[in-house]
Amino acid sequence: MKIKIIVDSSSGLSESQANELGWGFIPLQCEIDGKRFQIGREFFIEDYKKIWEDNKKVDATTSASSPALSELEVSKYINEYDLVLIYPISKHLSSQTSFLMNQFKDNKKVYVVDSKRVSYLIVRDLLIFENKINNGIPFDEAIKHFEVNNERLILIPQFNDALVKGGRLSKSAAVIAKLLRIVPLIKYDFGILEKEGIGRVFTKSLEKTVSEMYEENKENLEDKILFVVHADSDLIESLISKFKVITENKLPIYSIKLPVDISIHTGIGAVCVTIANVDKGIKDKITLFAKKW
Q1: Name one GO molecular function term (predicted).
Q2: Do the Cβ atoms of 13 and 27 come closer than 8 Å?
Q3: N or C: which end of the chain has fewer CB within 10 A?
């Protein structure tokens, strides 16, 4: 089959990065102080970081993609390809997936993934899927991969403002957390963000989390990579240096930007870490969307 892949901006890719991988792109939307933007097409994490630094109480929300834009993107490929596969943000984090499924339910040439992923997890899934298709594995078999690979993935916010605004942390709890220097540890489990525990200091909590992950995996590091997902370039270099020491320089480390769609809800400064399996067949494509340290 000739298949065209489309991602949305929750993948963490910009439109140009998605196109470089040969994929189409649908932007989710954000509204910042009353102005609406298409994420990954005209508004990027650097733009939001600057706005946030100027006003940490900025009024920012996200919403699903415009149906008109989704229809326009699909129409570019529908005649040239046997199938258009859309891999959107996790259905547990947004209405995007259900909207797209409903929009294209009568079009047999469009397949919308029942997504439980976000950020680099979407990109990795699709690179593996492409590799399987290119090796002659039937479509129905290749898509089963989207239901596996649920590595331990922990997100740690540096600031609690966005969590309070989104109702994920009460104001009183945020005050206590600030006084006691407590940070929440949030695990990403098959598309759902859930409480994992608490730490005492942001950087120390990250170091402890990476150390625990490394100990769990150190007996078999083949084809494994430490992924660090972040929104603040000013912070990442010092963290990576510490992670290299923790992992004894035995584990490749890659970093990618946290999607705007997620940063608005977790705050600038949030960092997500995981040790992920990366198939040999897709390693050469990682540098198209991630930075190797």
Answers
A1: lipid binding
A2: no
A3: N
Buried b (16+ CB within 10 A) or exposed e, 139-177: eeebbebbeeeeebbbbbbbbbbbbbbeebbeeeebeeb
Q: What is the pLDDT of residue 182?
A: 56
Q: Where are the domains of the chain?
A: 3-28+64-147, 153-292
Assign domain 153-292 to its CATH architecture: 2-Layer Sandwich (3.30)
Q: Does the global pTM surpass 0.90?
A: no
Q: Strand 35-38's sheet: what is its strand order?
A: 35-38, 29-32, 60-63
**Architecture of the 3-28+64-147 domain:** 3-Layer(aba) Sandwich (3.40)
Q: What is the DSSP string of 21-54?
A: TT-EEE--EEEETTEEEEBTTTB-HHHHHHHHHH
C-alpha 293/C-alpha 100 separation (Å) is: 37
Q: Please check the confidence at residue 103 and state whether its pLDDT lies above 80.
A: yes
Instruction: Look at 141-145, 149-153, 207-211 and tell me which has the smallest mean pLDDT.
Output: 149-153
Structure token digits, residue 149: 């690979």
Q: What is the largest CA-CA distance in the chain?
A: 59
